[in-house]
Every structure is written in C-alpha cells, then in structure tokens.
Amino acid sequence: MRKINSLGVAAAILALASTSLTSVALAEDVAVTGGTAFTKGGSGKVENATILMSDGVIVSVTAGGDVPSGYRTVDAKGKWVTVGFMASGSTLGLGEVGSWADNNDSRTGAKYKDTIGLDVAYSFNPRNTVIANTRIEGVTRAVTQFSGTSDNWRGSGAVIQLAGSDVADMIVHNKGFIRLSVDEGAARGNGGSRSAMWADIYKKLDAAKPKDEDEDDKSEDKSEGKDGEKADSKDDKKADKKKPKKKSEGDKMLDALFAGTVTLQVSVHRASDIQQVIAMQKKYGFKVMLTGAREAWMVADELAAAGIAVLLNPLDNLPSRFDMLASTGQNAERLQAAGVKIAFLPPDTYQTRLVVQNAGNAVAMGLSWEAAIDALTINPAEIFGVSDHYGTMAAGMTADIVVWDGDPLEVMTSPDAVFIGGEQIELVSRQTLLRDRYKEIPRAPGFKK
Amino acid sequence: MKTVSLLTSAGKRSVGAVVALAALLSACDARQEQGEFVDINRDPFPSSYAALASETTLITNVTILSGTGERIEGGSVLMAGGKITAVGAGTIAAPDGARVIDGTGRWVTPGIIDVHSHLGVYASPGTGSHSDGNEIGDPVTAGVWAEHSLWPQDPGFGRAAAGGVTVMQLLPGSANLVGGRSVVIKNVPGRVAQDMKFPGAPYGMKMACGENPKRVYGSGNNNVSKRPSTRMGNVHGYRQAWADAQDYQRRWDKYERDYSAGKDVLPPARSLRMDTLAGVLRGDVKVHMHCYRADDMGTMLDVMKEFGYQIASFQHAVESYKIADKLAENGVCSAMWADWYGFKMEAYDGIRENIPFVHNAGACAIVHSDSSSGIQRLNQEAAKALADGRKVGLDISKADAWQWLSLNPAKSLGIEAETGSLEVGKNADLVLWSGDPFSVYTKADITFVDGAVIFDRADKSKQRVADFELGHVGEGDVK
To answer: Which residues of chain B are within 8 Å of residue A134 when distances are taken between CB atoms?
Structure first.
C-alpha cells in the first residue's frame, strides 16, 4: 500500500494536466497542529496534537510537538482531527447515475452465471464524480461491491481509497470478501423458499469444500443440509470420475474462502436466518461477516461467540419486511455491548458521505461516541483486512486525516481539511462547482422578470 | 353518485347553490317544474378527527423557536384546550391544575409538517400487497384519492411522532402525470383514515414531471404502450387534462346558470377525474408537483399561467436553486431534501445548498422527506441544509431555518391559520426537544398535537405500537 503513494503522485501530476476536476495535490511534508486528535478510533485523544505526515504516511502524533523544518503547517487549533472515515458498503465507482442512465455496472444481467467470480476492478471508474462528493465530507475509504446479480451470490468487493487517478491506485484491497444474500428477498428469487435456497447453498459449498476433509459422512451436521447432503455426496462421486474442470473465477474465490484468505459477507436479517448463517460458519469453519442484520441484536451473544462482525445501518428501525420485524435503532448499541464488532453502512451510494450522520444517530440511540468512531475507522479496517495500513493515527499508517470544524458526528459540522495518503484534497466536487455557478443566479443583462 | 343536497352538502359552491335555490323557491310556481338540483358533495369522506385527551400544560424556561423566525431564550409556552394560549419570554403563571414541565436546557418548536410522505399508502412492511401509492394504467388518475389507500396501522406513523412530526401530507406516487388527491392528516392514531384527517384542510393533487411518467408509460425501449413516452408527451398530457377540465367546469357552470334560470335541466355527466382537476381550476385543490429539473419547472410555470391555476409546491425540486428567482416571483414553494441527488438523471444536478439558496432568493423553502426513515429526522435535514448555507456565507438563523419545517409547509398546504407556528390561538402542535434540535444527538422528548401528547420518550404508554406490531418480536421495543 505504501508504495502506492509515489505512484499516486506521478499519476496525479498527469491527471492534473488533463482534468480540471482532479484534486489530489502533491504529496508533501505536512504538519497538522493544535487540534484535538483521536488516534485510535474514538479513543487515544491527544490535545494540541502535532501530526506529522511525510511521503503519504504518518510520521508521528505528539502533544504540542515541534514542527520540523520543511513541513507545511495546517493550523487545526480548536478543531477535531480524526482518521478519515470508512463506509462499509457502497457501489462507489461502479456507476455515475443510478437509474435509467445506461452507465451502471453494479448489477449483472439476468443470465450472467459466474456470480461468485465477479470482480469490481473491471467496473471501477476512478473519475466517478460521487467519489469527490464523498471524500470532501471526510469519508476517505469505502467498500465497493455489486448490488445485484442473477442469483443470490454478489461477487467479490474491494476496499477503495477515495483519491487517485487509476484503478490500481484506488483499489487498496480487492477480493477480500465474497457476498451472499440469504434474506427474504433472496429466498423469493432463489428457489422461492428458504429451504430451497439453503439446500442450493449447501450443495455449492459442499462441492467447493476441499475434498480431503469430505471423505466420510461423520462431519455431517444433522441440523443442516439433510437431503442436500446425500445428493451432494453422489455428485461428488460422479465428479471424481470426470476430468478436473478448469476452475472458474468463482471456484477460485470459494477455494480462497475455504483457505481462510477470503471472508463470506452474508446479507441477512431475521434472527433465525442469522442462526442458520452461524451454523453454516460452524460447519465449514470459514470466516463470516454479516451485513444489514436488522435482527442481529437478538442473537448478539451467539455472534460474539462466533466472532462474526456486523455491518449495519443504525437508522433501520422499521419493520420494512417480515424478516425485519425486530428492527430497532439500538441494534448497534446492543451488538457493541455484547462484544460484536460493528461497522456502519451508509443509506446509499450517492449518500456514502452520510455514513457519518448514521454513526451520530447510533450515538443518539445509546452507542458511545468512541464506539461510533471505532465503527467508522478501526473496526472496518479490521473487518475488511486493511488494518495494517489504515484505521489508526499511528506512525507508519497511511495518512488519511480529516480536520473537522467540530464534532465530526454532528450534522452541522464538516471538514476543513482532508488528507488521503498524505495528500491534501481540494474541497471541490461537481456539486461544489454547480453551487459556485449558481450562488449568484446567472442571467443575461437584458433579462426581464 | 349524485348527491341531492341542499342542506347537507359542504363546500363553497353549495352555498351559492342554496342562495340561488332560495330565490327560486319563492318564485317557483311561475316557472316550469324542475327536477331537484344536483350538487356535488365535495366532502364525501369527512374528517372524523377528534382531539385526544389533553391537559393544560405549561412548559417553562425553554428555548423557543416560534416558527415565524423568532427565537426566545428562557421562554414559556402555555397550552390549554388544544390551543396555544400564551407564548413568550419570561414566566407565565401556571393555571390551577396545569401540568408544568421544566424545559431547562431544552427547546420547543412548532411540530414538524412533512408535505411529502407516503406513510399508510406505501406502508411497512413493504409487501407487494401494501403497494397502494401508484394507480398505474392511465397517466391521468385525478380521480383516485390517497386516503382510500391509507392504512392507519402503518408503524411509520408512530416513528414519525417520535421524530416530532405532527402533521403530514400523504401523497400518491409519481408514476402518473396526475397521480390523484393527497390527504392532509394529523399524526394521531386512527381506526379509519377519516379519524386522522385534518379538519378543513384543503385537498392537494399530486402531479409529476419528468422521468417517472415517461418511464412508466414509455418504458424507454421503443415499447410504448401508451402516451407519454417523452417530456413533450408529458406536457401534452397535462395540457389536455386541463383543457378537458375547463370544458367540464363550463358544463357545470352552465347547468347551474340554467337551473337558476328556472330551466329543467339535467346535470352534466359526473367525472370523478374531472371533479379533482376542476377543483384545482376553481382554487379549491392545491397542486403539489413532483419536479426535479429547472427546465421542467419552468415549463410548468407557463402551463400554470395558461390554465389559470396555482402550483402550491414543486416536490423534490432538486434544481430549484437554478430558478429560485422565478419561483419567488411566481409564489411557488419548493419542497426539498437536504442532500439527496444522483440516483437518476433528473437528480444529477442536486447540490447541498439547494434549500438555503431557495430561501436566500426569497422563495418558499420546505424540507420534506418522501421517506419513512427520513421523516423521523427532518430536524437533522434542516440542520444540514442550514450548515451548508452558512458555509457559503449565507446568514440564516436557526429560527429562520425552522420555517422550512413548519410554517412554510403549512402555507403550502393551506393550513397556516391553524398550525405551523407558535402563536396564540393556533393549534398546540409542538415539540419539546431534549436540546438543540439542530444537533444529531437531540431527540423529541414530547410531541403534542392539539395539546395532547402523541409521543413521550419517557412514557412507554405514549409510544405508539401499531396493531401490526402486536405479538411480533419488535413489539414495544425502543425504536
């Protein structure tokens, strides 16, 4: 990751020449001074902090520390300084305009088959304007992923940093997770019944499971699979006689899932459905995270025991569907209290920036402020496997730093300065350009009312 | 349904008819024998609203945003008989037996009025069987009424009460050029829709510009099932509908003239669709038009002038900032989100400063939700818009900004004489907030409608549990 910065600078220079909207400035040595810094999520508070950034990474964070010569100083006196926030789900970069605009790559056609093998890198557009709309609000990282496919597998997703000018710059971790939906909507569209859907899921996973662990039936869990299990073993015998097929991208991702290098992100809501997911995780032993998870609080202890993290939107408090009847604004707080690692979803891709307001509302519903900031920084860094370089404000970490004009979770505050990979982002977007064009309504001199 | 109604009919026109008939009756025998005069009952589903039990309540030492642009520190508000009976700085003597609430550290505002909700018509749970908001099949369905889709047991009403919403306009969807009548309701529990209807509130009529109608009917794939399939087709559709409505109104006017002249005449054939459209042309029904793009709105301002009606509001209006001067000149409100944009082409040019820019141009700005989630936090939407305006140098106070949530919505709905601000004599529709309502951490502590508590954060018995929620796992939980 760290080497990206020098490449990023080169790309940024090229981009500066080619587009007026490029906002990545040159990487430089910068000191942010005088602010109140939160160095470990919502904790690790440092008053009058001197934050030094060089070559795209954080050099040090010290209280009242000196600024070495050669550093440009950004005064943050009276401001709050955090790590740039991360939104744990979006389709950022996969489409410029959502509906009926013929540019959306976040969904596959109805006949596309290898839905596990989908890779967002082919679709991601670094110049998508929603990215700038998002980062100027202090969200510097996001998970981007597919929103719909022909079945209930949704390919893999990526962690992106919201600055840079080419795909390789901006996708900082790709194919770290694959997605599967087992919620009520998925059941309707995949077999018509949960029973049919789960049988198919087990069939697929059993087929993908490494064979040396699947020789006999002693691992069979009576509560799971049942008939599907028998059918699978027959299929396996037949498959063994055939020549080994060339592996699809999806097969490779499932191999990685069983190898433990990829996590299965499951979209699920009803408590009993979540328990099915926990049972599946126990059966196979692979890594799982949940997304949506309206009723997760009801099985919070089981999730904590299984080490399953939950991505959620804390505003979801209506019984929007029959698998969401126990929805409550306290989902975040209750999961956190039970020891489940949580991170936040934004309301939608265009409003990825509002993941911050969502976090504020979780606090209004009882979550601690510190835990809410954790859920925007450290937690998603760990959940999505990027905590080696992102999530805290420590020496050596990528310098994603935001200077806020007040409590970042408040609805009336906003960033005064945003650094991504140590580079200060111009607070300009297509939206601010429109704003500036119309602040004084342009009229022809002879315009008559 | 013909209503023969001299004494029982409601509405402006019937008054005229009664007068005319009284004159006729005196000279009756000199004329030819006439059939009974057929008048249209303009209120066939009358409000059965009755205020909930309330007590005289005094809130003291509280920060007040009056809703008229005024801010009072350390003020008091007195509610009695469902009305605001006193409001101002300093202390007000508590009447005997009054409930006194110490408002120290807390804020009072007028109740939030959401002019764009689909609660009840697109209820939770959002099953296919609950999808009652778009009467697709004909681009002009002026004859359908949202109140006939309204399911009072939508759990969203209780959530909105917890967000400080006291009144809302429930609208049909935007699939059609003319989607049908809206209904203005008070956010109180009701067994039937009429129990919630705001007494005397004018009807609204939903219209829609742009992408939605042309997508629904044109489909965009050269598979046009029915007009419209283009924006120009949309405008043809509105204009023809208005022209038809003019014709319809002329026939009824002629019927009245002829009857008044003593002729034995049959009334024109009744058209429920034309009743609503003609109601707009007479000024009885207010037009609330879903419209995103500035050019679409500009077209509709001319259609409005061509047919002599008034558009009360453009709904969503994400490009109002481009024509805020024209909207101010034409007296048309814009009901807007703080920051939604981008999800379709006509929302692509949305900016975060839309609301403050419209306000700054002297036009009527309204914060609306169009969302069962957003309606719970409209105060935060106003806060974001205010902050965005201030950031580009607009000097707007919180007291001014609250008008986006109460008085301006009330004006656009035609209920500003009854509610929308904290003024003596108005309905006691107000919210006691736990603190500054422009903070994300602030919650509505108590929401009052006509002086009665419709939500109390500290009292489980005042937290609404819809019939639907009974017996389910979420019943009675903190929401």
So the answer is: none
